[in-house]
């Protein structure tokens, strides 16, 4: 059977969400995500906005054009996280319903990760239960910080506990740094995907590790895009400096930071179509922990497909990266064997 190509970080949006993001500019004048969306929605990005809003024929046509079997969909960043708690929770529910409907229309082409509103952790945990249960979604997505706070803070633990208990992964997708941290990035236009996203999201992952989240929840699985937001490159130095810090204040962590990264994380290739980096990450985190992604509609499908097609890596590893790992990690049913016409 042909290898299935499953793209694992593919964005969609709802009209309601985009309208709310446009209004968020007024409530959050210093937030770079609000500024970004205000600019995008002012015009000039109709192709991207159109791609985000489409959960139907045109998206499938693009997938077909590049031989992509499936999109794992997630509500585009910053999701619901710029809104107040009530509006955020309602929008997450609506987005999850729309996502489940799209998957029901195209069960072999779409899978999806559920949104939730971290602003209200108990309600978030309930929505996660509904999304994994009744809606049968494949995992969860959060866009890094919420109001400058990270999920390792005790008030957010119900969210991490829900993901672990439901046995579904949590994708930590980037957004810009909190307003108080952006000044040195803003003046050199570094807040976005060029650098700030990775700094922000890598920090979030490191906070979870250092807080001991994975000692308490050893089965929790976190997914990072963009080849792990730089962390695979840093593992040696992280462990080294961790040991050095132990002389001052003894950490209660049961393992080295890199052990958690290898055990509790998976990474995707989204927006990082670099075969050398893939080679390196295969050595650092192994073929079972890497999934292919495009980052549609922000990055182009052609480049992402060509990158993995051309990568000179072991064919069994390549099959896992194209789709085998996504089937296992997201609980996507394997494609039924093709029946012969009789
Ligand atoms: Mn993305």
Based on the model shown, name its key terms.
TIM Barrel; 16 helices; 10% strand; globular; alpha/beta; binds manganese (II) ion; 8 strands; 342 residues; five-stranded parallel β-sheet
CATH homologous superfamily heading: Metal-dependent hydrolases
Alpha-carbon Rg, integer: 19 Å
* Highest-level CATH class: Alpha Beta
Tell me the strand percentage band: 5-15%
Present as ligands are: manganese (II) ion
* Relative helix content: 40-55%
Judging by the overall fold, what is the CATH architecture? Alpha-Beta Barrel
Question: How is this structure best described in words?
Answer:
With 342 residues, the chain is an alpha/beta fold. It has one domain (6-12, 59-330): Alpha-Beta Barrel (TIM Barrel), CATH 3.20.20.140. It is 50% helix and 10% strand. It has helices at residues 15-27, 32-41, 46-53, 57-65, 85-105, 121-132, 157-166, 183-186, 196-210, 213-216, 226-229, 231-245, 257-264, 275-285, 301-310, 315-330, and strands spanning 6-12, 70-75, 110-112, 140-143, 170-173, 222-224, 265-268, 290-291. It is globular. The structure holds manganese (II) ion (MN).
């Amino acid at each position: 059977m042909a290898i299935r190509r499953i793209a694992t970080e593919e964005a969609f949006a709802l009209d309601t969400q985009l309208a709310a993001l446009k209004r968020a500019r007024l409530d959050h004048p210093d937030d770079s995500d609000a500024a970004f969306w205000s600019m995008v929605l002012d015009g000039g990005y109709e192709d991207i906005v159109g791609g985000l809003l489409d959960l139907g024929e045109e998206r499938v046509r693009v997938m077909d054009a590049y031989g992509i079997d499936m999109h794992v969909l997630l509500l585009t960043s910053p999701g619901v996280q710029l809104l107040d708690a009530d509006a955020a929770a309602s929008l997450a529910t609506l987005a999850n319903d729309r996502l489940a409907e799209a998957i029901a229309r195209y069960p072999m082409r779409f899978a999806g990760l559920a949104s939730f509103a971290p602003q209200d952790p108990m309600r978030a945990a309930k929505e996660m239960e509904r999304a994994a249960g009744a809606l049968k979604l494949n995992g969860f997505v959060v866009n890094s910080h919420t109001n400058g706070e990270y999920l390792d803070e005790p008030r957010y633990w119900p969210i991490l506990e829900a993901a672990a208990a439901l046995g579904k992964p949590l994708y930590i997708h980037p957004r810009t740094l909190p307003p108080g941290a952006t000044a040195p990035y803003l003046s050199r236009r570094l807040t976005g995907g060029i650098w700030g996203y990775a700094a922000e999201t890598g920090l979030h992952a490191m906070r979870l590790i250092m807080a001991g989240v994975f000692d308490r929840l050893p089965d929790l699985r976190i997914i990072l895009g963009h080849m792990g937001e730089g962390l695979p490159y840093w593992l040696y130095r992280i462990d080294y400096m961790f040991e050095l810090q132990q002389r001052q204040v003894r950490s209660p962590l049961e393992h080295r930071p890199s052990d958690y990264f290898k055990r509790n994380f998976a990474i995707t290739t989204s927006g990082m179509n670099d075969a050398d980096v893939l080679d390196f990450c295969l050595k650092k985190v192994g073929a079972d922990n890497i999934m292919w992604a495009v980052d549609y509609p922000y990055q182009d499908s052609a480049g992402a497909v060509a990158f993995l097609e051309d990568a000179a890596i072991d064919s069994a590893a390549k099959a896992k990266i194209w789709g085998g790992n996504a089937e296992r990690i997201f609980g996507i049913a394997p494609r039924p064997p093709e029946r012969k016409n009789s």
